[in-house]
TrEMBL record:
Stored PROSITE patterns: ABC_TRANSPORTER_1, ABC_TRANSPORTER_2
Domain ABC transporter: 6-249
Native source organism of the sequence: Massilia soli
Recorded GO MF terms: ATP binding
Domain of life the protein comes from: Bacteria
InterPro entries assigned to the protein according to its UniProt record, in alphabetical order: AAA+_ATPase, ABC_AA/LPS_Transport, ABC_transporter-like_ATP-bd, ABC_transporter-like_CS, BCA_ABC_TP_C, P-loop_NTPase
Record's keyword annotation contains Nucleotide-binding: yes
Alphabetical UniProt keywords: ATP-binding, Cell membrane, Membrane, Nucleotide-binding, Transport
Protein known as: ABC transporter ATP-binding protein
Keyword Iron part of the UniProt annotation: no
Family annotation (SUPFAM superfamilies): P-loop containing nucleoside triphosphate hydrolases
């Protein structure tokens, strides 16, 4: 098998006397989509926060392409290739939809605000941004200020921005939460497309088991902060520990 693009080793975080994530070790590979499941309070989002740099680990480590990035913050990890959607929003509410995505394209192109940016084609930036808006079905809202978007459209915009950053590792935390029924297929189709390209490492936290079944190459189960199962979907979902810890509970709507 290829070298893992992302690894965690004994990754742990404590809040006072509470261990929210407890010595979780896992490898994630390019071309695979791993779904992380578990009951409420299992540590799924906290594990995501440790990987993406929103929280500092109490102990253990995170590695990207074999490089220890444990001491790097979220911004540095983003530039190194870890992209995350559906965290606390980083959208610019007073800018338009197209401007938000253009900034992501510009960041990816390493243009920033340097003095030579004027020489990079503005039309090329806009063209790339429009491409990502089309992928998330937001082309008709390109000139709308983000503050005026619905919750579902804001989530789609976050996906467009994530795509524009072209990260090596793509992380989705409950991507369909809060979306209307007609909005859900757009985002799920996008994740299917990313998975089909087989070049990215995709991590997904999800409660809805129909979504898990349709997307997962692999399932990891966390329970009380501990990794209790890891393997192919059929085996993991059939295991006794999963039935007891998760699947036996009522599914979330």
């Amino acid at each position: 098998m290829t070298t893992p693009s992302l690894s965690t080793r004994d990754l742990t975080i404590r809040f006072g006397g509470h261990v929210a994530v407890n010595q979780v070790s896992a490898d994630f590979y390019p071309g695979t989509l791993t779904v992380i499941v578990g009951p409420n309070g299992a540590g799924k989002t906290t594990y995501f926060n440790l990987i993406s740099g929103q929280l500092p680990a109490s102990s253990g480590s995170v590695h990207l392409d074999g490089v220890d990035i444990t001491r790097h913050g979220a911004a540095k990890r983003t530039t190194m290739g870890i992209g995350r959607a559906f965290q606390l929003t980083n959208l610019f509410p007073n800018l338009t939809v197209i401007e938000n995505v253009r900034l992501a394209v510009q960041s990816r192109a390493r243009i920033g605000m340097n003095m030579f940016s004027v020489w990079f084609s503005h039309s090329e930036l806009i063209s790339r941004a429009e491409h990502y808006l089309e992928r998330v079905a937001l082309a008709d809202r390109r000139d709308t200020k983000v503050a005026a978007l619905s919750h579902g459209d804001k989530r789609k915009l976050e996906v467009a921005i994530l795509l524009a950053l072209e990260p090596e590792v793509m992380m989705f935390d409950e991507p369909t939460a809060g979306m209307s029924v007609d909005e859900v297929p757009v985002v799920l189709d996008l994740i299917h497309q990313v998975k089909a390209e087989r070049s990215k490492t995709v991590l997904l936290v999800e409660h809805k088991m129909d979504v898990v079944r349709s997307l997962a190459d692999r399932i990891i189960v966390l329970h009380n902060g501990t990794l209790v199962a890891d393997g192919n979907p059929a085996e993991v979902m059939a295991s006794a520990i999963v039935q007891e810890a998760y699947l036996g509970a009522p599914e979330h709507a």
